[in-house]
Amino acid sequence: MQKKMVLMEAKSFLAKHGLKEGNLVEAVFQGETFLGTIVPSKENGMLFLKLKSGYNVGLEEKKIFMIKKISEGQKVAKPGTIEIKQNPSLPKILILHTGGTIASRVNYETGGVFASFSPSDLLAMFPELMQKANFETKLIANIESENMRFVHYAKIAEEIKKTLGSKPMGIIIPHGTDTMAYTAAALAFMIQSPQIPILLVGAQRSSDRGSSDAAMNLSCAVDFITKTNFCGIGICMHENENDSACVILPPTKTRKMHSSRRDAFKAINAKPIARIEYKTGKIEFLEQNYLKKGHELQTVFKTKMEEKTGLLKSTPALIPEQITFFAKQKFQGLVLEGTGLGNLPILSRTGIEKINAQNFKALQSLIKKGCIVVMTTQCIYGRVDMNVYSAGRELLKIGVLEGKDMLPETALVKLAWLLGNYKDKEKIRELMQKNLRGEINERMPINNTVEAQ
Ligand code: ASP
Fold this sequence. Notes:
- With 453 residues, the protein is an alpha/beta fold.
- It has helices spanning 2-16, 119-125, 150-163, 180-190, 214-227, 320-328, 355-368, 390-397, 408-421, 425-432, and strands at residues 24-29, 32-39, 46-51, 56-60, 64-71, 92-97, 104-106, 113-115, 134-139, 170-174, 191-192, 197-201, 232-238, 245-249, 254-256, 265-267, 274-277, 283-285, 300-301, 309-313, 333-338, 372-377, 401-402.
- The chain folds into three domains: 2-71, SH3 type barrels (Roll); 92-301, L-asparaginase, N-terminal domain (Rossmann fold), CATH 3.40.50; 309-432, Rossmann fold, CATH 3.40.50.40.
- The chain is built from ten helices and 23 strands.
- The structure holds aspartic acid.
- Residues 100-101, 144-146, 176-178, 202, 204 line the site of aspartic acid.
């Protein structure tokens, strides 16, 4: 009933102005003029326009000062399906779709951005892939990655476990880019010593845009799976702004470093694992220390994660209530994103920053309650060394653990994973500081950083 009303209201704005989805319109909203195509909206009272830049903008209908149709617009229909011929000489790749921009495009006729996940839809969008492998696809979710939670990681890992029986040569997980690095880290911890390559592939621009990176990222992932002896988890994305190459990035040492560039993903304090030239398919390994197909290690799945694990960024405005929150909510683990070498405002030096001492007490009490607290750095590059400054030393004394050169996001995922799968707190503390999946460089190179490419 409510749904029906929402739909009617949404329709009535368009009807009132003689417009329909797919029309190219000009709208004046809060003094700004927007030119874009009306895309279907599920949100009551909002008009969504797809701009020429490819981005969508949401305008509150009642604040639209003027709207006029520029043209009927272009209809973008669902891509035609094509007949899939399985070629027995080609290897099998499994696609476990999770959502995001990668396999989506706007269908102005039937509504919204739709995800292509059936083999025929996907291959109709990227037919060149069929020359390289046979595909089986499965939809795990169709969700923007900003809406993913730990529970989705477990779902993906369980699905991987189930599908291994069909012996694919590798798995591709199309994924939204926003939190793709978190998922990669989670899968790396959840699946110990996989026997095949499992690559997360995203796109910064949807497939209906000329500048989309979807096809190239997928194609490079397929080449990498079919032509190399790599096994394990990786992220496959553009190396630079050109369409020349993709890189395979390490799952626990990668970060989305740009909100919109196609080469947003960078390895931090690490090198990319490999580089795939798009045109030639030539592959160069930049890292030799990786798990190789045919290894004899046993694959172990541990897929639980503790939800009550948090991440707190140090700022000059940090107040004790921000810390006591975690105690009140019974958090089991907390990653701190400290300043510099791993500091937090906890000391009162001149008297006007007395509140800092309360931050210290709040943290001490949180740790006494059993919460495991780990320090990382908001510098991104480099590692924490808490023995250098007084704040760091005081924090070490009360039991804060050094996260070494772990990325804050990776430390969060790792801590949640350890808390989910191990009972003994001492063991968790020990493992948190030990390199399990390449998340910690025990020793940094001489120049103390490995810059992103
Ligand atoms: N916000 C989107 C997501 O992470 C962006 C993308 O799909 O790449 O799902």
